[in-house]
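ok so I'm stuck.
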Amino acid sequence: MSAAQADVIRSLAAQLRVDSIRCSTQAASGHPTSSLSAADLMAVLLERHLRYDWDRPSAAANDHLIFSKGHASPLLYSMYRAVGVVDEDELLNTYRQFGSCLQGHPTPVLPWVDVATGSLGQGLPDGVGVALAGRYLDRLPYRVWVLCGDSELAEGSIWEALDKAAYYKLGNLTAIVDVNRLGQDGPTELQWDMDCYARRVQAFGAHSLVIDGHDLAAIDDAFIRAQSHPDQPTVVLAKTIKGKGVAEVEDKNGWHGKALPQDMAERAVAALGGRGNLRITTSLPEPGTPAITPNPHTLVHLPRWEIGEEVATRAAFGAAVSAMAARPEIVVLDGEVGNSTHAGEFKEAAPERYFQMFIAEQQLLASAIGLSVRGYITFAASFAAFLVSRPFDFIRMAGISQANIRLVGTHAGVEIGQDGPSQMALEDIAAMRAVHTSSVLYPADATSTAQLVKTMADTTGITYLRATRGAYPVLYGPDEEFPIGGSKVHHAGPNDDVTLIGAGVTLHECLTAAGQLAQAGISARVIDLYSIKPIDTATLRRTCQETGGRIVVAEDHYPEGGIGSAVLEALAGTNTPDLHTVLLAVKTLPTSGTPQELLDAAGVSARHITAAAHTLTTSPSKPDPSS
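replied:
not stuck anymore, here's the structure
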């Protein structure tokens, strides 16, 4: 670095600090002190190392910059002003204001932001997914730079990320940790114990560099050295001072997340040299195109099954997603259960697009999100109990990122049998229904599973497919269509007495119950509610009216937020004067047992459905008290 370059970087760092103070003070909200500590790091990166075409944020060879410490958004947005994509008026007058793109934490509403951050511990795991794409799929030399805070190194997801980055030899990933010692409520766990940080980083297989985060030459040297380890991720551990550049708040507790008062801000800006108008031209990336070209029009031959053949929906998923390997943009992530979920079959079809995340469900989800940044259609699969629960915050944040990911949770519900309740997903439908942009699917047979897997590939947002363990008869012919938001109606007649609604395993119980009711002279219409969100409101409302408002819903899920809740929400406001519903769900803690024993004990087996329908049809004015 020449003396002239150093002077420019010093001026840029001062401007970033000034702008971080000005915008947060104007908004009376924000995290200026967390921005001030990292200003030197970002000034060096922006001026010397980041390769980015700001006019073409989607250019394939651009580097990626992720602020894992998303609360330092004043710094990020000040960088955008420095490169000329955000003007001063927008920065000062819209930051954190209603309707502004410059939100409190970064989101992809801005084209230069890859993923939403703000929930700590997520930016680095997402960056691993982007780096995976760069090394193994795109095969382009772009780098992934992630700015982390020291507080978030208390999150286990950070170490999952470093572990997988080392395992996959992601030398194109550099984490820059702003070790400013102070968290939101006092000192961080390790404060400035840089040796301890370094040992932890090295233990997870990453290359560590400890530097003074305010020494421009040391920062520049570290970023150069980070790029000299092609098969190992680098973590730059930068010792910094929170509030650096503002003597009144430097290294002082109690200033996290607080904008400087106007008078203090004016003094700070003056001490930093006043308002700057420096414009930076970052280096452009070398031209390049990804090694994989998506081809959504590739002919996919889905597997076919005979009606009546018994096939587990998890097995149908494995067969279908393996067929989808014909499309070069399809990727599968496994959580070390691929022999049970059948996701492992994709490895035989396209080993170069199959990644093992082991039992690290947070990184499993984050990798899917990172790969989606690069446009890959990724299916992440594991047992539903773990896929949805442990990494739920990643799923929630994926909704905020408006990411496109496909999740497949197998072994759902009480039907799994002897493994017991720790392995049963009984909350997953409720959790996934609550996520912004989500679709929730629960097919009952192999044909519908395969068709939905194909449809998921081209569905925007977060799609979740629930699959069960046991084998059940194929109900539909191979050419049957299953649009998301639809349903299938069985046994419909002009004088049906009651509607039975099920999905997945309980659909088969509903069909059995319909046969039992027919023997008693009761005509039961059955709805396969394979799409729980979005739900087929039109069919539900029409069927409700045609069967006198008598409805039985059966689900192998807890009652809160599940299929019954979805049905009642869809029927709210209908013109049916008498709506009588019985909701059968898992209302007690299950135990181990055979699938049929567990379905029966939970009260969602065919005999319980039959009994509920009898109650509604023989005494419609006195619905079952469990309704």
